[in-house]
Amino acid sequence: MDGKWGVKTKDAIFTVEKGAKGNLTWILQAALYLEGYNPGSLDSIFGKGTESALSKFQKAKKISADNKAGKATFTKLFAV
After folding, report:
1. What is the C-alpha separation between 70 and 73, in angstroms, rounded?
2. pTM value?
């Protein structure tokens, strides 16, 4: 990734789903929180709180509410 929401970053995104752990999950949690969807603890673990916040965000943004954060979800979270 190049630090900008551009082609390189978009190409590097992969789908994050329940049970995932790590930096991308933490970024997802933080971004959801900043958008007003509280995932609970920002603990880098995709659990029930993250799943619930993600589902609400996806429904509000009219993204397929599949409880998985893929390119469409990250684009809605980060595109200017």
Report:
1. 5
2. 0.89
